[in-house]
Every structure is written in structure tokens, then in C-alpha cells.
Write a structure and sequence with these properties.
6 strands, 9 helices, alpha/beta, 6-stranded mixed β-sheet, 215 residues
Length: 215
């Protein structure tokens, strides 16, 4: 491999600062995590967006959350087809191996992935319809959500689709037999949240999937 480069200096400085302070002050805790393994109480599925910082939002320390991030915080439906499924693998590990008690899907406002899905489904982004578009094929997961919002006033559709990205993921989670079984046994609870990155607020979906309230 001849295409690797050294880490940028600003990141090296940040790492050395963390090692000298946060790590040094909590070295015993980090060693305990290494020797005893992780026991997170919750899995969080959130967007790759750099503005979404779930550990910061909840003040979480190392070892608290099992976190999976992808474009638009989407979960595909259960598809045991022998192919490679990163999100599904993360869900399987969290529920069956780590035995998390909570599975939290965190969407957010101003999501580029959701905006891209809206553009694709409305015909404004034909490049995303190409079979070679990884983003487009991933955003196909959200097409059912678009069908539910496409008749709203145009200025409301993208915001509504951001909520649908969370709800579609919750519905798809329940297609996984081990998720459904854990929920029915009272061993796992599902949570649907939307983070407003401008206001810093969190909305939580009620059980009917139509009502959202500030937490």
C-alpha cells in the first residue's frame, strides 16, 4: 500500500492532548473497559453528519453507547440474503450479543441524505437513480416515507421526510425477528428521536408514530 499519508498535525496534537488529560485521568476506567469488555445499555443509530454528536448530546462516556452511524440514520428491512449488511450486522450484534436494553434512532434537521432522497424521488436528482449511486440505492430505503409526504405542501415535505427517516427505521427494525422477540419479551425498547441541530432540541415520537413532543 503506497497511498497512505501521515495523520494531519492538528489531529496529532488533539490526540496527544487527549492522551495526556482525559485518558491519563481515567486510565483505570479505560483498562477496565479493555479487560472486561463493553456492556452498553443502549444502541444509538444516527446519521454520519458531522454536526450530529450523540455522545455530546447525552453526555455519554466511553462504554455507554454502542453507536452505528450511516447516511440519514436508516435501517433497512430484514434481508437474510447472504450479502454484506453493515447496519443489520450492527443491530444483530447489539441485540443478540450485547443485549442492549434500548435501541435509539436519532434523526436530525437539515439532513443532506434526506434532502437527496426527496430530490431523487421527486425527479430532481436523476443521478441518484443510477445503479452506480451508492447513496441513491441506500436512500431507496426511505422511498416509502416519501410516498407518505409527497402530497404535503412543498415547503413542508423535507422536514416531514426527516421524521419519516426515523419512523421508517423503527418499522424496519421490527422486521428483524430477534428485535421483535426482544421487544415482545420486554427486554428491549425502541425510541425515535429528532435532533434540531440549530436549536439543540430533541423531539420524541409518541407510540402512534404521528405525534412528536419535546423531551
Amino acid at each position: 500500500m503506497h497511498d497512505l499519508s501521515p495523520l494531519p498535525q492538528y489531529l496529532l496534537k488533539r490526540y496527544h492532548g487527549w492522551k495526556a488529560t482525559s485518558y491519563s485521568e481515567n486510565a483505570a476506567w479505560y483498562r477496565r473497559l479493555a479487560t472486561e469488555g463493553q456492556r452498553p445499555r443502549a444502541m444509538v443509530i444516527s446519521c454520519c453528519d458531522s454536526r450530529v454528536h450523540v455522545t455530546g448530546i447525552f453526555g455519554a462516556d466511553s462504554g455507554e453507547f454502542f453507536i452505528h452511524r450511516n447516511i440519514a440514520n436508516l435501517v433497512p428491512a430484514y434481508a437474510p440474503d447472504g450479502q454484506q449488511h453493515g447496519t443489520s450486522a450492527a443491530v444483530e450484534y447489539a441485540v443478540t450479543a450485547l443485549k442492549v436494553a434500548h435501541l435509539i434512532v436519532v434523526g436530525h434537521t437539515h439532513c443532506g441524505g434526506v434532502a437527496g432522497c426527496h430530490a431523487m424521488c421527486s425527479g430532481a436528482a436523476p443521478e441518484l437513480e443510477e445503479t452506480t449511486s451508492f447513496v441513491g440505492r441506500w436512500m431507496d430505503i426511505l422511498r416509502p416515507g416519501y410516498e407518505r409526504v409527497k402530497d404535503l405542501p412543498p415547503e413542508q415535505q423535507v422536514a416531514a421526510l426527516e421524521r419519516e427517516a426515523v419512523l421508517v427505521s423503527i418499522r424496519n427494525l421490527l422486521t428483524f425477528p430477534f428485535v421483535q422477540a426482544a421487544v415482545e419479551a420486554g427486554e428491549l425498547s425502541l425510541h425515535a428521536l429528532l435532533h434540531d441541530i440549530s436549536e439543540g432540541t430533541l423531539l420524541q415520537a409518541e407510540n402512534d408514530g404521528r405525534t412528536w413532543a419535546l423531551v
